[in-house]
Fold Adenylosuccinate lyase.
Amino acid sequence: MIPRYSRPDMAAIWEPATKFRIWYEIEAHACDAMADLGVIPRENADAVWKAKDVEFDVDRIDAIEAETRHDVIAFLTHLSEIVGADAARFVHQGMTSSDVLDTTFNVQLVRASDILIADLEALLVVLKRRALEHKDTVRIGRSHGIHAEPTTMGLVFARFYAEMDRNLSRMRDARAEIATGALSGAVGTFANIDPAVEEHVCDRMGLVPEPISTQVIPRDRHAAFFATLGVIASSIESIATEIRHGQRTEVLELEEFFSKGQKGSSAMPHKRNPVLSENLTGLARLVRMAVVPAMENVALWHERDISHSSVERNIGPDATVTLDFALARLTGLVDKLVVYPARMEENLHKFRGLVMSQRVLLALTQAGVSREDAYRLVQRNAMKVWEEGRDFKTELLADPEVTAALSEAEIEEKFDLAYHTKHVDTIFARVFGEP
Amino acid sequence: MIPRYSRPDMAAIWEPATKFRIWYEIEAHACDAMADLGVIPRENADAVWKAKDVEFDVDRIDAIEAETRHDVIAFLTHLSEIVGADAARFVHQGMTSSDVLDTTFNVQLVRASDILIADLEALLVVLKRRALEHKDTVRIGRSHGIHAEPTTMGLVFARFYAEMDRNLSRMRDARAEIATGALSGAVGTFANIDPAVEEHVCDRMGLVPEPISTQVIPRDRHAAFFATLGVIASSIESIATEIRHGQRTEVLELEEFFSKGQKGSSAMPHKRNPVLSENLTGLARLVRMAVVPAMENVALWHERDISHSSVERNIGPDATVTLDFALARLTGLVDKLVVYPARMEENLHKFRGLVMSQRVLLALTQAGVSREDAYRLVQRNAMKVWEEGRDFKTELLADPEVTAALSEAEIEEKFDLAYHTKHVDTIFARVFGEP
Amino acid sequence: MIPRYSRPDMAAIWEPATKFRIWYEIEAHACDAMADLGVIPRENADAVWKAKDVEFDVDRIDAIEAETRHDVIAFLTHLSEIVGADAARFVHQGMTSSDVLDTTFNVQLVRASDILIADLEALLVVLKRRALEHKDTVRIGRSHGIHAEPTTMGLVFARFYAEMDRNLSRMRDARAEIATGALSGAVGTFANIDPAVEEHVCDRMGLVPEPISTQVIPRDRHAAFFATLGVIASSIESIATEIRHGQRTEVLELEEFFSKGQKGSSAMPHKRNPVLSENLTGLARLVRMAVVPAMENVALWHERDISHSSVERNIGPDATVTLDFALARLTGLVDKLVVYPARMEENLHKFRGLVMSQRVLLALTQAGVSREDAYRLVQRNAMKVWEEGRDFKTELLADPEVTAALSEAEIEEKFDLAYHTKHVDTIFARVFGEP
Amino acid sequence: MIPRYSRPDMAAIWEPATKFRIWYEIEAHACDAMADLGVIPRENADAVWKAKDVEFDVDRIDAIEAETRHDVIAFLTHLSEIVGADAARFVHQGMTSSDVLDTTFNVQLVRASDILIADLEALLVVLKRRALEHKDTVRIGRSHGIHAEPTTMGLVFARFYAEMDRNLSRMRDARAEIATGALSGAVGTFANIDPAVEEHVCDRMGLVPEPISTQVIPRDRHAAFFATLGVIASSIESIATEIRHGQRTEVLELEEFFSKGQKGSSAMPHKRNPVLSENLTGLARLVRMAVVPAMENVALWHERDISHSSVERNIGPDATVTLDFALARLTGLVDKLVVYPARMEENLHKFRGLVMSQRVLLALTQAGVSREDAYRLVQRNAMKVWEEGRDFKTELLADPEVTAALSEAEIEEKFDLAYHTKHVDTIFARVFGEP
């Protein structure tokens, strides 16, 4: 987790204080359930809640851990310092450390998911607004980086919207994947703890009980979770790449917002770098790198080994913090992205109508000209445009063989941009719903 | 795709003949839709269906492609050789190659998904059967590879069932991810083709129209698809790892089925290697390696570049064929897996009751013995077991300080395996539903 | 391995016939060594060489394997069919299958390395020629896709040369990594085979003996090998990316060679797609995906498990065949790459001298103008260029505050391209050696 | 970077204070070189060295950066606060930020390499000691987790030694890969800075000048560097896996050192978990995950984009810190690893001589018994051992058909462990050099 690429709410989820708070809640709810079952005295369960509003002393817990070399024992010791040894004596009874640790990790991932879901929702709002704003802003579509046919900037935003909407749906699924808890003991048999305790704790913590766990919650869930983050990150890279292309000097159809105060902006007006988009490209790689280790974590030995733990200590915070930061940065970037419609128009006409050559070719054949002849006619006019800088439509109108097959109006129509945008509303209705 | 790791049905999806057949269907359905719209003559659309039962000549198409250097044109040329140039003249009208190629790829992935779904369903049947069969077969649970507490072999199978059931659900989602088609033209604007054509073709091909495409179907869908295959592969590795551990000489609780005829089986009865499980471990790596490139494929330039194509030519067939093979191999492996309950019992008692030391420790404290004393009591008896090969229960029963706190019946109860299996039915009901 | 992305020499290395030939040579050389040691009769060793010029019948071997389910035994059976059972009776004596298989795999990788090394050498020749050709072809350098300062196209080629030269060196190291053989028996102790046999076979096969093997050659070697292929692939992606950028419509400084006959070339002269470079981008991903599984292969269990085998059956051929194809394609691409110097000059001047603003700013401060004033002066002239389309130098020469600090000659000098190219020879000497 | 998995010396390399110190040295040495060239006054260059022993105020620099939003400018401002604006006025002249940043990153990687090289050297010392100690400690070799033939524990250590020795060599190569610096300006042309400055700075900083750079040092170097770390991590996983297997309850030939004070050690003597080895397995995944993003970083756009930067801010510290920690942990683990020779012997004899069945089979055929008969003889005796728990050698000696072919001495010899260890010295000489 790199401080400059983190935001406070997400970072807070991964702080020791948050972790201990969740541990505490799990233990306290477990005591409640055990008291309900008559396994431990009700007053002991109640007494544990005395620590409800106490802030745990992280340094103190660390100090105890340094001695005991066991984090959960360290925490329990500190808890008993707060609520009293007698009140605390039944805390954690019948439980194994993983009951607390694994359930906590999932609570953290659920909370992280909630932030990421909100991030995606916020991004969608902005993408939709920009899509509507530029629904009719014509821009040349490009395949292979080469001019193809006209499209609109609104369609570009709309497709990013649709993609991020899919990501929102995937993120919700991913949240469900890891919204489980387990308090099932050393090998998952509930030998020392009643399943009712697990049910109660999960209910209170916003989780569902893991149907079958070992000592740990199965890691295929986490693999699916981090894979989803990787897909979202890849979509971020996709949008970032579009902006980077749009801002390059020769294209200059898009520009990251550049605040007036930013040094160098006006002494070198040509040198505004799409650094945010480039940064997002790198951040996407960082999120994505969590995917493979999360998958390697699935095949634990027998009822568990601890090889996954160090991996998760890293990718748990890092991937969620980085993705949260990236989504927020992207939202701001799209929100303020400077779009240059005039420049889009200029680029569209860069080769003076040549992008319409395909339509003309088709029209000629439909008018009865043989494929070979149609090809020859388009070619000889296209080459004048390409090599001599002439205007394609003008050349066509002046070519008697062409005008013998197509009327002036027909030729003019081939250069009508409305031909290309006639279904934009249809597509928008598909993406955003009927207006 | 390695022949020895492929099965015919899945491999057939990726054969040229299949591809051309799908291309044909897309083109023919598109003609129908265009005829309905009055864009092309109905008789031409009808005539295209003359090729319905014709087997395309792959070599001939290849020969044409070698000349034209364009696969779709080669196919269309061959099609016109079959149905006649006149009938074929409106085929592909207004379409772009990607309309056919991308929609076809998704049809292939959908069909591959159907096989993978069936594979998972078949695996689940077998896992459930083995789980029920060994519901009460007690086996020591292990954390860190070290004996922990008893569990049952049925629970092991049940947890693999639950995991594969999640994978089935993920696979169905993945199928939905890529069950879309697009016939939207060079930059996705439907400039030259009516959205109704896309709707008709998708309907006939078992797909839904991609709400917004560019020249291509957005690749976040494919990234999510291949990520799912990677998760499933990781689960396969997990089961394979369990079997490999179970078969190692010192454990020998499990054994891959070894047919009587297999050379060397009885001259070296100790040397039966879990080669299928090891192979599955490698195959899991092969499937998983498709995940990252599929994610790298998402950020295409503008309305498309072709960088994803070579990647998909490889991972499309390879990842699905390998996963299909692996799932089928795993199903056979689990189906016939030899389980040795007697050996499980023997291993469980390897350290003569020491695995119960935790329960005894807990019982002593609950009986009012201080933690320090309880610990000391357990320790001094445990060390006799560990160092001198004695029996733990016998030692405890002979230790007056222990018997002062716990009755003989209480001590006996600590060694009762039923304590550990009492919730097996509950867990089974969670996993398989109420009986 | 996708046929369209493979070349015959590399593909041949991975064909069954080649594999059996190598197996044969290993077995025959091993017989020689054993005869020298007096372990087997000399005439038997000699007799094995009768098969020296015989082409093995792959189908026959496959048929035997289908029965015996053991590839090496199948081969040995076939060999005995050729040289006679008596001659063959000492073949493979004391050896384990892996002795043959692992040594063979490394022979194949060494041969693949030799092709890749030749590929890189061929690429270097072309890169050097293009670098020298365009040593002085000025082109704007770009950071963040934005115009920065002038450089030359020769320097672009030179840096790719330097990078590929490093890759050549890495490839040679990678070859050395896997140029080892092992004939050390079931667990690497030479219990049944003398180390002298290993030495003799390795010597004949162009390998060095693996200092210590288990049943297999350690896989860290292969991990390092495939990692190297991944690095080279990444460099290919880097060059491909440069070309893709250079060919995009708005830049058009570079163009993949487009043969006269290629369909559509002149009817749509603006639509020449950098499909080879895009393809190389995808191929780079394919090569790179071998890296992680090769690393996952390192941690085999004890003296070996067979999990690595299926992985290597795939990545062995696929990664080397794909990289060979990619390098050859890249060499052809660079060889014929169309470079447009006029267009480079045009792009360089796109903003009428603004790319020199930094030099002017520096000159003003060096002339004693305060930073703030210098900045203000540059800014007010730059904005006229940026917003009103004027020429930067003209504006500066007309600004009395500027000319008060800098003479006309000094201002002129700031726009002298030679300033930027003055060290090109130095850099070329560093890269290519003194001329 | 996770504090619990970091060591102070490596962590210190990545602290802001270290970074600023390196920046300073680069700037100061550059001033010296410029003074030597007469580009700036000597006294200014000298004055910069006044800050030589000053500790930079990181908070102050951060505060300035918060304002200027440019880290290098912030540092230079702080420097001028220390040495005085006049002295500082020529600092950084003609340089671009990347000149400092990239060169600094490589200085950090070189220093990290030095630590990693020392780590590997320390590990080698320990591995060699343990290898010599257990040169003759016989242990059953295992393929597929199944008993194969005897080997020695010394050979296990020796092979890890050989593997880590290769890693040491790779690490030295990796160090050389990134031991370059560049001070070549905005696009690498040395337009504003003389190559002599780069030479001087590199010389002083322990680097060699990058032969050709753009704005940045080419990233194929870093890809190769991080790939090497990934290979080393995979070797660590390999050793860790061996120990985890060796410590599992049923094997128990190895045990991680368990300090007397460690809680629970003696109350549950059977429950000593190989948590360090498991942790190393996870750490290996963490190091390895840097490899792919480092490769994705290679294809920067034109003369540079900044996408690599966020990736390197993460993997630079994380991969080196984690690998350093892992190597140190592994060294301690191997150093104190508890080896149980008696248990090894016990396991070796687990199936009462069956592991020798292959030798007996071979001996029978060599004694003239047909393959079929030999097989039948071994089989009937082996099955008595396998199914009835008898002793293999005893059975063979009692089988008249066997003794008809082999004398008692010959049979005895087949069970002689010395047969398997006779070449241990040869192998040790290969690995460690002649004694």
